[in-house]
Amino acid sequence: MKKQEYAIVDIETTGGNASHSRITEIAILIHDGEKVIERWETLINPEKEIPPAIFALTGITNEMVSDAPIFEMISDTVFEMLSNRIFVAHNVNFDYSFIRHELEKSGIKWTAKKLCTVRAARKIKPGLPSYSLGRLCKSLEIDLENRHRAGGDADATAILFSNLLAWDSEHEIDKMIQKTSQDQRLPPNLPREDFDQLPEKIGIYYFYNEQKKVVYVGKAINLKKRVSSHFSGHKITPQRQNFLRDIYAITFEVCGTELIALILECTEIKDLWPIHNKALKRFEPKYGLLEYEARNGYRYLAISKLAKNQNCIETFDAIYPGINLLRELAEKFEIDQRFCKYGSMSDGVFSLQNDTAILPEIESHNEQIQIALDSYLNSRPSFAIIDKGRNKEELSCIWIEKGHFYGMGYLPSDNPISDLSYVKDHITRYPSNQYIMQIINAFALKYPSKILFFQADSE
């Protein structure tokens, strides 16, 4: 019976993603499980300029590839060498995605079982300082010549692969090359244990880079299934490839409900500002209702653009709802319009210096401003959302105070909810924002049976 053969591959490219970059060099070594039995390499004309940064890394110039074959001319050779062999590479999904993409462009459909020597080395030789090819070879005393050229890196990967086969007493490589193996889909730098520990529960998850910084936060109904979905498919966009290369660790937090997970995801993205999160970053309120006392001693109300993290009485996505609210307050509480500021107007519609009308008495005016604000703040609802917890011993609680999200946490399920102070003792404070209140209010309308009203503190 013919031995299982492996195609050990390395490529050099014009950039980091298969959809916008091209291959400039390829090396393929055929390994029979004991030794290399065939070797082939060639430069490739990428039909586009090689960026200076790539030249600095590889030393491959535009002149060197100008007379080289384009990929379509060598596609049959590449396909023949890869067919019926296990595709082996260091960070396998990078090389695999480029070659699969180029073969498809040449009209050749190809798939293969894959083996990543980064992941194999992590399993068979755990605890090494780094698993990049250069540092790994240094740790394992493997000669690495002609670094960042396809032939040199492929030769070093072949030696590494031979050593891993010899050291593999637990048959980890056989397990990894099974077509259904989860390892083939995981990012190259992510320990399998981080994925295995994920529960099939509601919660949020964190992806970390090599520097242990959070680069992505996500929400999930099923943590294991949702995280796995990030790694499935064969998208070759630069965003996806950069994202997968950046994942070195995963942690998670189980939540009692999807609503709590949504709120926690939002607050964590606001707090951590992960580089790969895009969507929830745009939910920043643009305008706010502000109150301040000027040097003349009069208190003013204003609708103004907000600076980042600026405190205010109320927030708005657009200026006109804010203007409408301020106009309603001024009319209802008979506030002099000269003390209401709208948008970017420096002194509002009226100027105190040029207006000859008698100004209101300062103390009564300031008191009327306070009455208006107290009335508005106290008119907003205060309530708790009581729902299931993370287990049968607890209930989840989200507290909304005077129309703003106050915090959330978990209560013992066997104790009656007696008063507001009991609720507040069990919740953690979180900042509120308009997006959070939108999803809370939508939930409250849909599930009124889960709402519990309290008299809010008068602080």
UniProtKB/TrEMBL annotation:
Stored PROSITE patterns: GIY_YIG
Domain GIY-YIG: from-to ranges: 200-278
Transmembrane feature ranges: none
Alphabetized SMART domains for the sequence: EXOIII (SM00479), GIYc (SM00465)
Pfam (any one): GIY-YIG
UniProt superkingdom: Bacteria
Designated name of the protein: GIY-YIG nuclease family protein
Source organism: Flavobacterium flabelliforme
